Amino acid sequence: MAIIADGVRAVAFTRHGVGAARLAVQREAFRAACSQRGWVAGGEVCQIGAGGGKGRAWAAVRRLVRARRYDVVVVDGLDTIGASESEIARELVLLRHAGVRLLVASTGWDTVNPMMSDLLVGALRTVAAVAGAVAA
Fold first, then answer.
1. Is the model's pLDDT at 136 over the cut of 60?
2. Given CB 3.0 to 4.6 Å as the disulfide criterion, which of 16, 75, 100, 106 pairs with 95?
3. What is the pTM of this model?
4. What digits encode the pLDDT tens for the residues 79-99?
5. In 3-state terms, the chain is what percent helix, strand and coil (to 5)?
């Protein structure tokens, strides 16, 4: 059952690189997420190489949302926005402070709910801390 949310404009952020799902898979996840929610599936910003915060494409997509050209960024998985747990957590915090909404299509996680964002950041930071302690 689709939830109708008139006027929500979504932009896809995809990544082409090692560890990323094929672009076709990422695009299909975007279209399905938008269709399910009744959102307008808008454009796509694709980054080549490392995920999220290290690329100009990610900065461009954040600017598009802050400029109100789109209402939400849709990614296939969290690994699209960062290469490590600590990087992903940092990006989620930056998105929240910038007022940028993120939907993770593979899980349905939507940062429109601030509690979801807080839970994700807390979990990612815990995983990063444990991984760092194990590596030391």
1. no
2. 100
3. 0.83
4. 888 878 888 888 888 888 888
5. 50, 20, 30
The per-residue pLDDT for range 42-65, each reduced to its tens digit, is 999 998 876 666 678 888 888 898
CA 14 vs CA 4, 30, 34, 83, 127: distances in Å: 24, 9, 15, 14, 24
Q: What is the DSSP string of 8-35?
A: -EEEEEEEESTTPPPHHHHHHHHHHHHH
Tokens representing 29 are 């996840």
Rounded Cα distance, 50 and 69, in Å: 25
Please report how the helices 114-135 and 85-98 are oriented relative to each other, as an axis angle in degrees rounded to 10: 150
- Counting beta carbons within 10 angstroms of the beta carbon of residue 22, is it exposed (0 to 12), middle (13 to 18) or buried (19 or more)? exposed
Report the candidate in 11, 5, 4 with the shortest Cα–Cα distance to residue 66: 11
According to DSSP, the residues that pair with 15 across neighbouring strands are 47
